[in-house]
Structures are given as C-alpha cells and as structure tokens.
Fold these 2 entries.
Entry 1:
Amino acid sequence: MAWSTRELAELAGTTLKTVRHYHRIGLLEEPERAANGYKRYRVKHLVRLLRIRRLADLGVPLSDIPALEESDENAEQTLRALDAELKANIERQQRIREELAVLLRRPDLVDLPAGFAGNAAELSDTERSLLTVYSQALDEPTMAVLRDLHSTPRPPEQDEFDTLPADADEATRQRLAEAYAPVARRQFEEHPGLKDVAMTDALSNQVVLHGLVELYSPAQIDVLQRLNTLLEQTPPTSP
C-alpha cells in the first residue's frame, strides 16, 4: 500500500502544504518515487507525520522536535519546559477569568487595574487614573504593595486632600500636610515596599511624574511637596 502526498495529508488530518513544509525543514523524509515520478508514501511516513502532528499539537515548536528526539533527557527537558509554560498560561487565563467575573458584575471597574475592586467606590477619578498609569509604570511587587495599601481603611486626610480647592491658602495646605504626615509615616511603616518604588524604566518615571502634575492641582502638588519635606525631617522608623 502506498499513498500520494494528498492522501497522506488527508490520513493525518493535515494539509498538502503542511506535508511539504515538513519535507522542506527536514522533519519528514522524502519517500521513494514511482516510475511515473509520483511520491509513494508508506506506513512509516504516516506514523512519522502523525508523531510530528502530535508534538506540534502539544505545543512543541517544530524547531525543537529534532533535539527532543535525540535522547530521553532532551525529551524530558523540552516537555517539562512546555508544561511549565502551559501552567503559567493557564494561571494567567484563570486570573483573567476572575477579573472578567468581577467586571461582569461591576462594569464600572473596567478602568481600574486588577486587584483594586475592593474599595473602588472610595477612589476618586484622579486616583483611578493614577492607578491605571501606575499599572504600566511600576513593577509588580510595587503594585502588590499598592493593592495591599488600598485594601486598608481610607484615612479622612485622603478625602480632604482629594477635595482640596485649587485656591486653598497656604495655611490650609500646611495644616493638611502636617495632618497627613503621621498617616503617611504609618503607611510607610506598615508597607515598607513603598520606600522602594521601582519604575520599569526612565520613560515610566517620566509618565508617572507627568501624571501627578496633570492630574493634581497646584495646591495638591504643594501639599505633597510639604508632606515630603516633613517626612524627610522625621523619616518613618524601620519595621
């Protein structure tokens, strides 16, 4: 029994083009040819083609198949690496499904990074925008610290800061900075990762700074600067 290229492809559930591609990259050996020049594929070719298709369906890159077949050790390494990759993909997809489940219940949270749904109702529009910027500019450990921070009760000083009038006088700004200082110190002590905010790169640092300047009023920026000065004078204690 011998088959043509098209028949072999049909038996293996693939295409003529795919069979020719496997020939071209050396995965499938060329068969004998009949007197009329047509290829004559045998059972061994079908078995080989089915093996290639199975490995490809499992996610093994075609370029890795030759090395995988050299030894059991190579095969194990390749398959373990593939298994780890698939596990990571499954975990990622599970996280996405969990996020989608939240968004289906609360479509208004679509503009928030994952993990900040718990106190979304308390967040101002400015905070929502900043968190979105942070999610691209900060590394994941820092975002985890921010998620933890936002899971705690919101201090009243934060509400006052969010609603601070753009024309707030100097005395009001100084009073708010002084009132916020002990709160900020406690936050730094309870969340030490805040001291090591890590931008993904210089451009991200620029984006965050621009975000703060554009989203906060000059009065709010002034309060932040005053607060920073107070924290430098009496830094948070180490945990």
Entry 2:
Amino acid sequence: MDNQYVVGWGTLALINAALAQGKNRTGLNWFLLSLVLGPAATFILLFVEKREYKQVRENQ
C-alpha cells in the first residue's frame, strides 16, 4: 500500500510540472513543490493565471 502512495504522489508531481509548463511557469520548480505540497499544489496551479511572455524586438 505504501508503494502505491509514493507512485501516485510522484505521478501527481509530474502532472503538475506539465500543467505548470502549459501556463509558462518553471516545470522543475513546480515538480519539486508538488513533491512537498502534493494535491495542494494542483489546486494552486488551477487558479494561477497563465503567464504571458513579453516579446522583445531586435534592432535591425
């Protein structure tokens, strides 16, 4: 039973990392945070807005 718990927690951390990258956030940071917070990190990611990148013009 304990092994299934660890596998589920790790899977959730990977899902959260992918979700974070979809919102233009650092996947590694959210993976590590999800290992600590677990499902709470998922709820935080659900309500965080997508980060928009500002385009930088190159002078030519």
